[in-house]
């Protein structure tokens, strides 16, 4: 299962992503975490120091290696320079599993708090005024386009804030998208915007309330969000301790909050991926990007990268 965490900036999506990832790991579920947020706080939330987090290798700085490995000997891709973030796999492409050992995992994945983690890389001073953050997130999108996660494997991504995920097709790469929502009009507004954009693409959007302090907060979220509201996280001394550098075992999280994490996992485990739609949407967004800018930049028609006879799915790695 591929799982995304989204929400308004400051809503606590990174905190929820780290708690859910820790909950999976504590239950001995194999999990790969990917930090694709511009602020890059997931490593620290998982227990790394600031210095350790800053020293992590990034997907963005290894884009050349990622492209070269995934390209394989696909005859439709003439060179790595013609690969863009949406380039889909085809016959001859290399596919990856979340827990394989390969050149990408060796260069970019590290263990943090016992959890396998990849980070896209933060926005650097040299990027100011000359680049957008999607140039870094594109490495994660390309990787997910070529990743086959099997039964009982979980990939959890902390996404950029707000509706910024819709700047690419990345939002279609997930089986469940958890939108973290505070009991405020601004946070509910982000939910409505996200739900409106996602409606036509079959995105399974589930709302988890956060920073809930009383029954009035619960009533507000229930009224504004309706049946999309799965549950909520109450104010947590466990989380405050972690934010002060005193992390505790996930089993010591408050009972209500643990129950919410359990409901989230049950929701994820109830989903069956539609591999045909997954491939179809990947191709759709590649063609959109090729027409909008990719073909002009590459100097060739990137629509030709689509292999119409390629069938994506677990059978390819069996």
Helix and strand element order? EHEHHHHEEHEEHEHEHHH
What is the strand tally? 8
- Globally, the shape reads globular
Query: Which structural category do the helix and sheet elements fall into?
Result: alpha/beta
Q: In DSSP terms, counting alpha (H) and pi (I) runs of 4 or more, how many helices?
A: 11
Task: State the helicity in percent bands.
Answer: 25-40%
Low-confidence stretches: 128-132
- Give the termini distance in whole angstroms: 17 Å
Main β-sheet description:
8 strands, mixed
User: What is the residue-averaged pLDDT?
Assistant: 91
Proportion of residues in β-strands:
5-15%
Rg is 19 Å
Strand neighbour order, sheet with most strands: 3-4-2-5-1-6-7-8
Question: What does this 3D model show about the protein?
Answer:
Strand 6, helix 7 (185-198) and strand 7 (205-212) form a beta-alpha-beta unit. The chain is an alpha/beta fold and 318 residues long. The relative contact order is 0.19. 38% of the residues lie in helices and 14% in strands. Helix 1 (13-26) packs across helix 10 (255-269) and helix 4 (63-71) packs parallel to helix 6. An eight-stranded mixed beta sheet has the order 3-4-2-5-1-6-7-8, sandwiched between helices.
């Amino acid at each position: 299962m591929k799982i995304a965490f989204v929400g308004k900036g400051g809503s606590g999506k990174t905190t929820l992503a780290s708690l859910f990832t820790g909950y999976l790991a504590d239950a001995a579920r194999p999990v790969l975490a990917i930090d694709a947020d511009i602020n890059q706080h997931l490593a620290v939330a998982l227990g790394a120091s600031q210095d350790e987090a800053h020293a992590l290798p990034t997907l963005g700085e290894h884009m050349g290696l990622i492209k070269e490995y995934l390209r394989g000997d696909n005859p439709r891709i003439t060179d790595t320079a013609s690969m863009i973030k949406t380039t889909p796999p085809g016959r001859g492409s290399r596919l990856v599993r979340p827990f394989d050992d390969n050149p990408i995992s060796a260069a970019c994945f590290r263990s943090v708090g016992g959890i396998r983690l990849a980070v896209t890389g933060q926005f650097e001073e040299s990027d100011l005024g000359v680049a957008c953050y999607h140039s870094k997130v594109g490495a994660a999108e390309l990787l997910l386009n070529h990743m086959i996660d099997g039964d009982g494997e979980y990939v959890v991504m902390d996404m950029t804030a707000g509706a910024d995920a819709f700047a690419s097709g990345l939002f279609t790469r997930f089986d469940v998208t958890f939108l973290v929502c505070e009991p405020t009009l601004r946070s509910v507004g982000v939910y409505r915007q996200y739900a409106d954009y996602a409606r036509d693409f079959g995105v399974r959007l589930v709302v988890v309330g956060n920073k809930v302090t009383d029954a009035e907060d619960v009533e507000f979220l229930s009224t504004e969000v309706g049946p999309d509201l799965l549950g909520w996280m109450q104010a947590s001394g466990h989380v405050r301790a972690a934010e002060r550098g005193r992390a505790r075992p996930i089993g010591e999280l408050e009972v209500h909050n643990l129950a919410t994490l359990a409901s989230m996992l049950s929701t994820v485990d109830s989903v069956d991926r539609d591999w045909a739609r997954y491939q179809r949407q990947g191709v759709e967004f590649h063609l959109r990007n090729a027409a909008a800018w990719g073909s002009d930049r590459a100097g060739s028609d990137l629509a030709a990268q689509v292999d119409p006879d390629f069938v994506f799915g677990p059978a390819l790695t069996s």
